[in-house]
Amino acid sequence: MNRQKRRTGRRHPLATVALLAIGLVFTGGAYAALSAGTTAQAEADSTSQQTIEEGKKLFQANCATCHGLSAEGTDTGPSLVGVGAAAVDFQVGTGRMPMQMQGPQAQEKPVQFTDEQVKQLAYYVASLGPGPDIPDDHLVNGGGDAANGAELFRINCAMCHNVAGAGGALTEGKFAPPLTDVSGVHIYEAMVTGPQNMPVFNDLNISPEDKRDIITYLKYVQDNRSPGGFELGSLGPVAEGLFIWIFGLGAIVAITVWITAKSN
Amino acid sequence: MAQDDNSGAELAAADSSHAAHASDASPGTALIVQDAFENPGFPAHRPRVTDENPQREKRAQRTVYTLFYLSILGSLWAVAAYMLFPMESNNPGDVRLNNLFIGLGAALALLALGIGIVHWGKSVMEDVELVDERHPIGGSPETQAAAVKVFTDSDRESGFTRRSVIRNSLIGAIVVFPLPALVLFRGLAPQDQLPVPLLSHTMWRKGTRLALDPSGAPIKASDVTIGSAFHVIPEGLNDLEHGKLDEKAKAAVLLMRLEPSELNELPERKDWSYDGIVAYSKICTHVGCPVALYEQHTHHLLCPCHQSQFDVANHCEVIFGPAKRPLPQLPIAIDDEGYLIAQSDFTEPVGPSFWERH
Fold first, then answer.
1. CA gap A216, A65 in Å, rounded
2. Cut 0.90: pTM above it
3. Which residues form the signal peptide (chain A) (predicted)?
């Protein structure tokens, strides 16, 4: 009896350790949750003074040479007042800015900033004047009507970007880039801001839902292979003609040579 | 002097050689080639490996019938592929698999058959060389004379040369005969309308609202921000029951807004735009492709078919390419509610040249 009672009353030797561990996990977890909450808030809060300050520092260090100390524009770069967060997120987020060199158009290259820095830059520029904002996730996740998107794409986009989004040439060294591996957010931002020589497609021209449908169509083309077999770059008669003239005619010539050669 | 001597000697040598061969060369021949090319005849018959080595011959036979069996296999596979990869679902990927495997089977069947036949002929069939002498193309003098006689006799009997009025009227009748077929082409054009006015006018009228393609929603001037490009159809196009595509093909318009300061307008077209908003026909004046590759900073419009370029800032004049005329401009204004409307139809025919317009 006594012994049993003593046993029940006695704590396990590891109980203290367990308690300590539980306590640590709780505090740590709570801290992590809290701090994650605050950073998430800071990232999402486009008007937070801290974000804008960080963005301003980044801007003055990386962009001011061409765009001016307060983004008012210089001879070498346009004013960014009123271009909105979407324009910055597109240009910096795809690596087009900071620009490598002056040329017919800014080329894509590895992104120079972290996602957070891109957002900070974007919200700093957005704070200078009203402009299009970074779109909500539900508009860019590809959950729309691909058939409607395809029709709109053929009317508004396919003449430059190719009907399968393979891109195409423009005048004097400019080109419409392929859309085969562009994220939904960047496609949306390109439509609302009109980067480089691309025309602007504002929400009154193509509504946000229609833009979502266009992104859905492009995602569909990205995810589904062509039913016609080899796409050869989806470039149409140039690539297909080159292929058939070289390989098709080549095979015919080779067979002809074989038929007429004397057997050894 | 030495040179003179030399040339004298050469002449003398040439003279003597000429004299030596005078019998077998014409007097005009200056040089007689001594080593004339001799007909080498046919090359010696070279036996094939399959003629000399019975094992190789066996192997060639095996190859041939294996190819024919492969062909059978390919045909059967094409039948099996039709059943194994049906195009019954709505997934376009099925079409690819179906076509790919049926095609592979059919290609194997035909290729193996053809290669087998050629290989049979080349390495197993008897190897005998035959000479087929060419016969002269022209007939014998008697045949030729007979043919000429047929012609002269029939000419004499019919009087084809003598009776020139009959002959000429016959030629005239034959020439005129195809004319009805040419005239019948008129039937390809719409019957109740003349083709020229049809090509010269579009659906645009005074007051027609500019509407979005494809929804048909009217466009307000305030919707068109600077740098925008709108693909435009006339309002009411979607309500047409007949000829909707024909009308769209003529009336398609590209609407752009530029900085008014960048727009260099012709004096007589000053009121054709609205606050930097301009509307131009989308149909290329070269061969009628839709010109819609608009660059918002350079204001170039590029036609994708033959690379004609038009400068939107300078009343769409041609700056490059085979097009000869600028794109026709649609005069626009706004109505009481702020919607963009056409002031009139295009003032010139849109699109490529035709008989009455060039």
1. 38
2. no
3. 1-32
**Which of A194, A204, A229 faces B227 most closely, judged by CB atoms?**
A194
Domain that holds residue A220: 135-228
Q: Cβ contact (<8 Å) for B295 and A171?
A: yes
CATH label of the domain that carries residue A70: 1.10.760.10
Instruction: Answer yes or no: is A237 within a domain.
Output: no
The residue out of A100, A132, A164 marking a domain boundary is A132
Number of domains in chain A: 2
For residue A245, tell me if it sits in a domain.
no
Which residues in chain A touch residue B213, judged by CB atoms under 8 angstroms apart? 155
Does residue A236 register a pLDDT over 90? no
Residue from B49, B344, B48 nearest B201 by CA: B344
Is residue A88 situated within a structural domain? yes
Closest CA to B316 of B237, B276, B263, B240: B263
Residue A68: its H or E element:
none
pLDDT (tens digit per residue) in A155-169: 999 999 998 898 988
A160 and A122 within one domain? no
Maximum alpha-carbon separation in chain B: 111
Nearest to B223 among A176, A205, A227 (CB): A205
**Residue A254: inside a domain:** no
Write out pLDDT tens, residues A52-107: 889 999 999 999 989 998 888 898 888 999 899 999 999 999 999 888 888 888 88
Tell me which chain B residue has its CA closest to the CA of residue A228.
B96
Residue of B nearest to A201 (CA): B228
In Å, how far is A20's CA from the nearest CA of chain B?
A: 59
Is the CB of A201 less than 8 angstroms away from the CB of B226?
A: no
What ipTM was estimated for this complex? 0.75
State the pLDDT confidence band at A21, using cuts at 50, 70 and 90: confident
- The domain boundary, picked from A110, A132, A154, lies at A132
> Which residues partner with B220 through β-bridges?
B339
Cβ-Cβ contacts under 8 Å between A and B: the total is 87
Do A116 and A68 share a structural domain? yes
CB A106 within 8 A of CB A96: yes
Chain A contact set for B110 (CB, 8 A):
none
**Are residues A180 and A123 part of one domain?**
no
**If you search the block for the tokens 């149409």, which residue do you land on?**
A236
